[in-house]
# Entry
Amino acid sequence: MTFDATMRIDDGTAVVRLTGELDGRSAPTLNQLIADAVAAQVGRLVLLVHDVTYMSSAGIRCLVFAHQKLPRGAEIVLVGTRPEVAETIRLTGFDRSVVLQESVTKGPAEV
# Structure
């Protein structure tokens, strides 16, 4: 499956819609969007991951990159994480650094 990522920044929140497999080939695309969000000085990063079918360690490194580069106290939210992707995040322990939720409860819902 091909990977696609689009981002919209609105009112201090970056919303990124991801589709496909987040692996070593696609991770640089997400990292660039994260860098763009950091440059825009957002305080919240929402990743819409309903359509992410696979996340490798490179995808986890993208989350770590976001956590390191965003301002202290910034929130990283993964929305619609499939069970197999959520399990990867939990196995690394990174679920303690991000918020996993089934649907958007506040902020922009669409990109």
In short: Confidence is low (pLDDT under 50) at residues 107-111.
